[in-house]
């Protein structure tokens, strides 16, 4: 029986050429797998037909937008996942979803190999291969761009020689990856970190410097999950899409940063994540209202580690799975409404309310009705500062 290779297929030049390239190099049949994570662009049927026309024996296409929203974006939101405190894990979140579908397709089609189009300089090669190692360790992984010298020039020549039905004439100056949760842009003139991004870099967000009327929005949460906008109940997918539209129209979620890649280099990335940034901002503020202080302090460390694990391709790791349980528990009271003003590139919280609120007006007020017993403060401060006071006395004696 002829061996089969399952290919992570995008429909673009590199992965379209990879179908024939892999077949020639290995003699195996290629099954192309394309996943819709909300990236937009071509119809899935057109993508499937292109894969067949390029030589795939089968093409699997899946509309995974709801799955992506429910099982990947929501956990990231509940963990306030921001790599290096800024990046909401746009590409990193979609890779384990794609890996899951690749592993499922490999089992179904009896494949012995999986292929991807990643280079050797990026994070995605790690995310794909570490994920496959966890889900289907028996599979061999092929990486034509990284390991077989399939450069863009060679890919174009191969496509022209074979008469493949793909457009090889247009070359964007940027490398772009996008999905429901945001958009990532790199390469080109952005590789000079002194160059500022120009407006044509952006697609998900309007220019925040241009005049726009402010947009007020109320986001409702249940156990850390956004369930409604302005009182209208929505699915997680619909919530993210609506916040992408409304926050994007106000220029919210533009991020220009130099980040630490897993492979050891620093890279300059420009991101757009309007919905993600607005929703994480709202979720963090509702946590401030409903999560007890020590739990909140500890969760901030868990959130950071959770984000690092996902960025580093360890979605299916034991530690990530264990932290998921903590995040689930920590969100049990994160229920209520957050009012935000979207304007000028910012998502600013202006109000919050919750039946699970730990905010006590009678304790917090400085006006009539204050129930806080201020006479207790002196003794509290004496006991709280006693260790530092004792150490200070000792140090003066021995100085």
Automatic annotation (TrEMBL):
<keyword id="KW-0055">Arginine biosynthesis</keyword>
<feature type="binding site">
    <location>
        <position position="123"/>
    </location>
    <ligand>
        <name>L-citrulline</name>
    </ligand>
</feature>
<dbReference type="InterPro" id="IPR048268">
    <property type="entry name" value="Arginosuc_syn_C"/>
</dbReference>
<comment type="similarity">
    <text>Belongs to the argininosuccinate synthase family. Type 1 subfamily.</text>
</comment>
<keyword id="KW-0963">Cytoplasm</keyword>
<feature type="binding site">
    <location>
        <position position="124"/>
    </location>
    <ligand>
        <name>L-aspartate</name>
    </ligand>
</feature>
<dbReference type="InterPro" id="IPR001518">
    <property type="entry name" value="Arginosuc_synth"/>
</dbReference>
<feature type="binding site">
    <location>
        <position position="175"/>
    </location>
    <ligand>
        <name>L-citrulline</name>
    </ligand>
</feature>
<keyword id="KW-0067">ATP-binding</keyword>
<feature type="binding site">
    <location>
        <begin position="8"/>
        <end position="16"/>
    </location>
    <ligand>
        <name>ATP</name>
    </ligand>
</feature>
<feature type="binding site">
    <location>
        <position position="127"/>
    </location>
    <ligand>
        <name>L-citrulline</name>
    </ligand>
</feature>
<keyword id="KW-0547">Nucleotide-binding</keyword>
<dbReference type="InterPro" id="IPR014729">
    <property type="entry name" value="Rossmann-like_a/b/a_fold"/>
</dbReference>
<feature type="domain" description="Arginosuccinate synthase C-terminal">
    <location>
        <begin position="174"/>
        <end position="390"/>
    </location>
</feature>
<keyword id="KW-0028">Amino-acid biosynthesis</keyword>
<feature type="binding site">
    <location>
        <position position="123"/>
    </location>
    <ligand>
        <name>L-aspartate</name>
    </ligand>
</feature>
<feature type="binding site">
    <location>
        <position position="259"/>
    </location>
    <ligand>
        <name>L-citrulline</name>
    </ligand>
</feature>
<feature type="binding site">
    <location>
        <position position="119"/>
    </location>
    <ligand>
        <name>L-aspartate</name>
    </ligand>
</feature>
<comment type="subunit">
    <text>Homotetramer.</text>
</comment>
<dbReference type="Pfam" id="PF20979">
    <property type="entry name" value="Arginosuc_syn_C"/>
</dbReference>
<dbReference type="InterPro" id="IPR048267">
    <property type="entry name" value="Arginosuc_syn_N"/>
</dbReference>
<protein>
    <recommendedName>
        <fullName>Argininosuccinate synthase</fullName>
        <ecNumber>6.3.4.5</ecNumber>
    </recommendedName>
</protein>
<dbReference type="InterPro" id="IPR023434">
    <property type="entry name" value="Arginosuc_synth_type_1_subfam"/>
</dbReference>
<feature type="binding site">
    <location>
        <position position="271"/>
    </location>
    <ligand>
        <name>L-citrulline</name>
    </ligand>
</feature>
<dbReference type="Pfam" id="PF00764">
    <property type="entry name" value="Arginosuc_synth"/>
</dbReference>
<feature type="binding site">
    <location>
        <position position="117"/>
    </location>
    <ligand>
        <name>ATP</name>
    </ligand>
</feature>
<keyword id="KW-0436">Ligase</keyword>
<comment type="pathway">
    <text>Amino-acid biosynthesis; L-arginine biosynthesis; L-arginine from L-ornithine and carbamoyl phosphate: step 2/3.</text>
</comment>
<dbReference type="InterPro" id="IPR018223">
    <property type="entry name" value="Arginosuc_synth_CS"/>
</dbReference>
<feature type="binding site">
    <location>
        <position position="87"/>
    </location>
    <ligand>
        <name>L-citrulline</name>
    </ligand>
</feature>
<dbReference type="InterPro" id="IPR024074">
    <property type="entry name" value="AS_cat/multimer_dom_body"/>
</dbReference>
<feature type="domain" description="Arginosuccinate synthase-like N-terminal">
    <location>
        <begin position="4"/>
        <end position="165"/>
    </location>
</feature>
């Amino acid at each position: 029986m002829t061996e089969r290779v399952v290919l992570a297929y995008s429909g673009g030049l590199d992965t379209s050429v990879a179908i024939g390239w892999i077949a020639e190099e290995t003699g195996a049949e290629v099954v192309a797998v394309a996943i819709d994570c909300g990236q937009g662009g071509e119809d899935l049927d057109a993508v499937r037909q292109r894969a067949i026309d390029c030589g795939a024996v089968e093409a699997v296409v899946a509309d995974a937008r709801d799955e992506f929203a429910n099982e990947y974006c929501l956990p990231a939101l509940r963990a306030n996942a921001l790599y290096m405190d800024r990046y909401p894990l746009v590409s990193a979140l979609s890779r384990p979803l794609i890996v899951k579908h690749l592993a499922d397709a490999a089992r179904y089609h009896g494949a012995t190999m999986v292929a991807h189009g990643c280079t050797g300089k990026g994070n995605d090669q790690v995310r794909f291969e570490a994920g496959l190692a966890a889900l289907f360790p028996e599979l061999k992984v092929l990486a034509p761009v990284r390991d077989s010298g399939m450069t863009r020039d060679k890919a174009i020549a191969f496509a022209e020689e074979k008469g493949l039905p793909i457009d090889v004439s247009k070359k964007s100056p940027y490398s772009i990856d996008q999905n429901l949760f945001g958009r990532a842009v790199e390469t080109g003139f952005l590789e000079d970190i002194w160059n500022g991004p120009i407006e044509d870099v952006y697609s998900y967000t309007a220019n925040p410097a241009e005049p726009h009327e402010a947009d007020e929005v109320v986001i409702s949460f249940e156990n850390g999950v956004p369930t409604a906008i302005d009182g209208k109940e929505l699915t997680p997918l619909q919530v993210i899409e609506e916040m992408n539209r409304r926050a994007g129209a106000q220029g919210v979620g533009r991020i220009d940063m130099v980040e630490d890649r897993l492979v050891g280099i620093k890279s300059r990335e420009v991101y757009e994540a309007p919905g993600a940034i607005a929703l994480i901002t709202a979720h963090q503020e509702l946590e401030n209202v409903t999560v007890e202080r020590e739990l909140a302090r500890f969760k901030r460390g868990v959130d950071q580690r959770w984000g690092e694990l996902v960025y580093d391709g360890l979605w299916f790791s034991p530690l990530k799975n264990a932290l998921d349980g903590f995040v689930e528990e920590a969100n049990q009271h994160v229920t209520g409404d957050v009012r935000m003003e979207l304007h000028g590139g910012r998502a600013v919280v202006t109000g919050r309310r919750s039946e699970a609120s730990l905010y006590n007006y009678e304790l917090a007020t400085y006006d009539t009705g204050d129930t806080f017993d201020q006479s207790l403060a002196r003794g509290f401060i004496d006991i709280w500062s006693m260790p530092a006071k004792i150490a200070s006395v000792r140090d003066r004696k021995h100085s």
